[in-house]
């Protein structure tokens, strides 16, 4: 898994501070998470091929998380896209995009599927053999979901030396990978563990923005490899965080600690703070390791 | 009058090629003309005070001319704006913006007036003592207006030497400025022309984008000081210009010539052309003076 931050700032885009958008490379997919104004330019800046994006996940309908979507949908058409596009987001997102296409007397020359969400409990919204995506219901001023991207446990791995030692024939490989014991050509039963090792450990990435401090998400994000959690404010503005249903850096760290995540990534910073290091200073005493998101930052998970 | 080009490229925004938006400084106003995605960042790049923008004119509902509007409207609120905002644009623009504010559970803390246009004839849409704005109906794939920004003829100007020579008292000044003859204190009649000169010449700016070649606009833009006319294509793609209802550089020059405009400014370039000088090469033989729009370019009219 590889995460690329396209934008990690709150409220309004500035020249060098883009609003929320991320690209997650996972099992051959390139998932776009949120799509603030100007995301299509950020994609170009990072040299990301537009055609590889087939699934877009939108957390909520505040502008700094989706005002770039309609432009991207339009640009896909202008680029001659034919591949299907799936958009997952709150109920209403289809009406917003469709209305603008209709009034522009425009259309998409590819199939555009909207998967509108209104469930207040976590649900699986995307699944295939090797991965699934679940919603993480968040507590914000409007209906909002975070997203959990979770690899599925893969096949057991053949141990090359054991394969040679027991002279195991190729037609046994699939059963071994599936965890089955096999009968060797000489009639001897071979226990699976003798020739295989555990599957690659699975990875999990949780995206949680925007949200107030909300312990209800802890079981959903338990022990994830990376948690992106919003930290709009510092402790000095804790009251503002409460009234606007955002989090402070310390609150994000509390959630990370309770969920025993492996790494915390803070983002969605308010532009009022000149020195972003203050977010680290407030989070570190509560939880480590912790990093700050930056536009353009890449992280291997 | 001063024109600032924020973006002059067609279709989709690129890192260094912004879609259509302009700021016109005229008689103390700062008018925003069209508002492609990322316009608010361009405004910041140019150091333009957001609070000075009170009137926004939108030509048509294709994304490269208005996808930045909803973000700007939202940012105005976040900046604590209280002044009224007037948006002039095609019918439907109110529904698009209102729907997005409603679904975001948001609002504006200033009065937002939509002046929706559906008239196919030219009409005055803004007027005050010193200037007026008229629509220029254009021929594009959707309902589209250009805009004519026109100063009104001002007052006659007092000639200081003559005022002194005839010892004209101050209470006569207003009548002189209004073009009236006056009776001097000695009883002598003084013809207006003896003590005044003509008013400052009025200036006119016409914005015409997007449109196919359309001679119907010629009477409306006759002898304007500056004509911004779209030139999406070069002659090599004349057929494409026809089918998409855009213009070539040569067609824009033909319109400028027929309307005897004082200066032609080409814009709305397709990104397919690496060398923008080719637009000049095709326009110059037909009409001069002609310039190319550039993002960030400023022109005193």
Q: How would you describe this protein?
A:
With 301 residues, chain A is an alpha/beta fold. Chain A is built from nine helices and 18 strands. Chain A has helices at residues 39-45, 63-66, 69-78, 93-103, 160-165, 173-177, 238-244, 249-258, 277-283; strands at 2-7, 21-26, 29-33, 53-57, 85-90, 112-117, 124-128, 131-138, 144-151, 157-158, 182-183, 189-190, 196-197, 204-208, 226-230, 264-267, 290-292, 298-300. The mean pLDDT of chain A is 97. At the A-B interface, helix 1, helix 3 and helix 4 of A face helix 1, helix 3 and helix 4 of B.
Write down the oligomeric state: homodimer
Task: Identify the most extensive interface between protein chains.
Answer: A-B, 33 and 33 residues
CATH domain class name of the largest domain in chain A: Alpha Beta
Helix-strand sequence of chain A: EEEHEHHEHEEEEEHHEEEEEHHEHEE
Find the structural class of chain A using helix and strand composition.
alpha/beta
Q: What is the total domain count of chain A?
A: 2
- Helical proportion of chain A, percent range: 10-25%
Number of strands of chain A: 18
Distance between the termini of chain A: 5 Å
Give the mean pLDDT of chain A: 97
How many helices of chain A? The count is 9
- Shape annotation of chain A: globular
Give Rg of chain A in angstroms. 22 Å
* Beta-strand content of chain A: 25-35%
Report the uncertain regions of chain A. none
CATH topology name of the largest domain in chain A, in short, is: Metallo-beta-lactamase, Chain A
User: How would a crystallographer describe the biggest sheet of chain A?
Assistant: 7 strands, mixed
